[in-house]
Amino acid sequence: MKIAGKKLWYFLGTTLVFFTGLMGWGIYSLKLTEEEQSFIYLAEILYGQTKGAKGKQEQLKVMTKWLHDNVRHVQFYPASFDGRRFVSVIKAGVGNCGYQAGNITSFAEMLGMMERRVYHFKRKKEGDLTHTFAEIKVDGKWQVYDPDLMLYQEDSQGHVLGLVEMRQQPEQIKNRIFYEVITQDTAGRYEVTKARYRPPMPFGAQGYRTFARCRGKTGFLTYLVWRRQGWRDWFLALSGALFLIWGIPLIRRR
After folding, report:
1. Residue 65 shares a structural domain with residue 8
2. Are residues 46 and 138 in the same domain?
3. Which of 67-103 are b and which e, b meaning 16 or more Cβ less than 10 Å from the residue's Cβ?
């Protein structure tokens, strides 16, 4: 019995060592696509900044401030600037109101929220006044977030106001430029569109949640290995390992 028990522990031990090594090799040899690398880069920023935030509203406040502090408003862009992709705007650290609206709505989408970009236009004698910002749906209500002007306005209960509420309560608006855009009594219009800059979500709607649950790059790469290889490949690899460990010695004995 003791000998059989030792064999069993040897079998389990060698299998575990081989399987762990196979998993490590899978992580080491995994080549991420450009889309996956971008996703991990953005997810690490989002996870790190919102880790201690309680609720969606607090998460959006934190990311609005982070974008305001890390993406400068510029009139002219360097020749190397590529504004077609969300991640490239974040890495470049420059962008106007339109890019910032796309940035916050894209982060909101990664958090699983409904979002839209609002383009507001006012006709003035001295020149047109335009501004783009974001509205994000939190607990069934649209709220305005504007990283370009570092703007979100709260009511007395601490809830962030939406565009309709701001137009009804203009005294709540603290920013001069935003107040002028929203309240000026001239012919104007505003258009609502979906966010132009989509964050890469290569693993479906659960991508960011999976990343957050894995808590960082190593855990997420482990998840990727399992997802890429699939159970069939792992079963075949494990079967081959067991044959090498046990099958060949038995054949030699015979």
Report:
1. no
2. yes
3. bbeebeeeeeeeeebebebbbebbebebbbbbbbbbb
- pTM, whole model, 2 decimals? 0.75
Residue 39 within any structural domain of the chain = yes
d(CA 153, CA 145): 8
Question: In this structure, is residue 140 part of a structural domain?
Answer: yes
The answer to whether residue 41 sits within a structural domain is yes
CA distances (Å), origin 191, targets 97, 163, 188: 15, 12, 10
If you ran DSSP here, which 8-state letter would residue 74 be given? -
pLDDT in tens, 119-172: 766 555 566 667 888 899 998 899 999 999 888 988 888 889 888 888 888 888
State the CATH number of the domain containing residue 169.
3.10.620.30
Host H or E run for residue 142 = strand 141-145
